[in-house]
Amino acid sequence: MESVLVSACLLGEKIRYDGSDKRCDDPILQRWLQEGRMVPVCPEVVGGLPTPRAPAEIAEGAGGLEVLRQAGKVMDATGRDVSEQFKQGAWQALQLVRSKGIRIAVLKEGSPSCGSGYTYDGSFTGKKVDQPGVTTARLREAGVRVFSEAQLRQADELLKLLEAEEAG
């Protein structure tokens, strides 16, 4: 059975920067939970950041790939560079997917770690940029298909396809 890496905040864990969650009660997630296929992770927490913590964004509209390549930085709202914690969290998530053979992830959209379709531009004004978060960039480099919580149907379709191919 194929496992799926999932942002812990989507499963109701209160580990977001402000101590809240982003619980998603979608029937697909509920089914995956019952099937025992979800592997939760919060890259920011496993990367060493506390809960609660100052909100963070990738500076100057750069994306996660630029952070991984030392060409961009993740800054929190107090002006602290938290790039290393974000890179460590991405590395920890990568180790988790490798150890469990995970090929699909559903991560929280907009997050500087987990965003897949967009992140925020670093101005803390709500302006979005079409750039992935740090963990998403790291996982995509490794061949993991990353979806947002708004793309659960597509993730489930891929999951079924991968399992059908394995079955034969």
Keywords:
alpha/beta, two-stranded antiparallel sheet, 8 strands, 36% helix
Question: What does this entry show, briefly?
Answer:
By secondary structure, the protein is of the alpha/beta class. It is 36% helix and 15% strand. It has one domain.
Commentary on this structure:
The protein is α/β, with parallel strands linked by helices and 168 residues long. It has one domain. 36% of the residues lie in helices and 15% in strands. It is built from six helices and eight strands, in the order βαβαβαβαβββαβα. It has helices at 27-35, 43-46, 64-68, 83-100, 134-141, 152-167; strands at residues 4-7, 38-41, 56-58, 74-76, 104-107, 119-120, 128-129, 145-148. The strands form three sheets. A four-stranded parallel β-sheet has the order 2-1-5-8, sandwiched between helices. Helix 4 (83-100) packs parallel to helix 5 (134-141). The radius of gyration is 15 Å and the shape is globular. The chain starts with a strand and ends with a helix. 43% of the residues are buried.
